[in-house]
Amino acid sequence: MSRGLALVVLLGLVGAISAQSYKGCYYRQWGVFTFKKSGDDMTNQKCVELCKKDSFPYSGTYYYGKKCSCGKEAEFGGRYPLKTAEESKCSSACAGDPNQKCGQGNGFMSVWNTGYVEPGKRGMAEKLEEVNGRMRELIAKREMAEEMEEMEEQLRELEAKLSR
């Protein structure tokens, strides 16, 4: 069970570092994220792609679902870090897709991990992916070994019944 938990933790770390994923709703602070683009066709995915193309690991949509800004890891720490907000605060529909939520007004933004890995973290992400692959292999082997043990036990029980 502890190996399974380790795999879940590793998958979470790899996902947080290398995959596009929703980070959460945040209070928007002036000057923290870099403004990228505004438009009536804005969606979370479009913002993610714009920010990733320009080497930003985070994207944020806000202002009635029309604006996109990009951010770096440092903006979640440091002297004036972004602060999480309740999910209900990011309830405005995206201008380009009313089924998506893109922040709310100018005060809250929906933040996404773009999948871009900053150069200093690239090696760590690759190593995590390698370890993750090995963990999957080991778990599969363990599960096969457990199945074989169960089958051997069943075989012993059958042999015992037949010898009676």
In short:
Residues 19-115 form the WSC domain. Helix content is 44%, strand content 17%.
What report would you give on this structure?
- By secondary structure, this protein is an alpha+beta fold.
- The protein has a domain at 21-114.
- Helices cover 44% and strands 17% of the residues.
- Strands 1-5-3-4-2 form a five-stranded antiparallel β-sheet.
- The longest helix is centred in the C-terminal third of the chain and has 45 residues, at 119-163.
- The chain is elongated.
Question: What tags apply to this protein structure?
Answer:
44% helix, single chain, membrane, WSC_carb-bd, transmembrane helix, 164 residues, Hypp9125 protein, alpha+beta
Strand order of the largest sheet: 1-5-3-4-2
| Shape, per Cα inertia axes | elongated
Compute the number of strand runs.
5
Largest sheet: 5 strands, antiparallel
Low-confidence stretches: 5-18
Order of helices and strands: HEEHEEEH
Rounded average pLDDT: 82
Q: Helical content, roughly? A: 40-55%
Q: How many helix segments?
A: 3
Structural class: alpha+beta
- N- to C-terminal distance: 38 Å
- Any idea what the radius of gyration is? 23 Å
Coiled coil: 121-164
GO cellular component, one term: plasma membrane
Main location: membrane
Organism: Branchiostoma lanceolatum
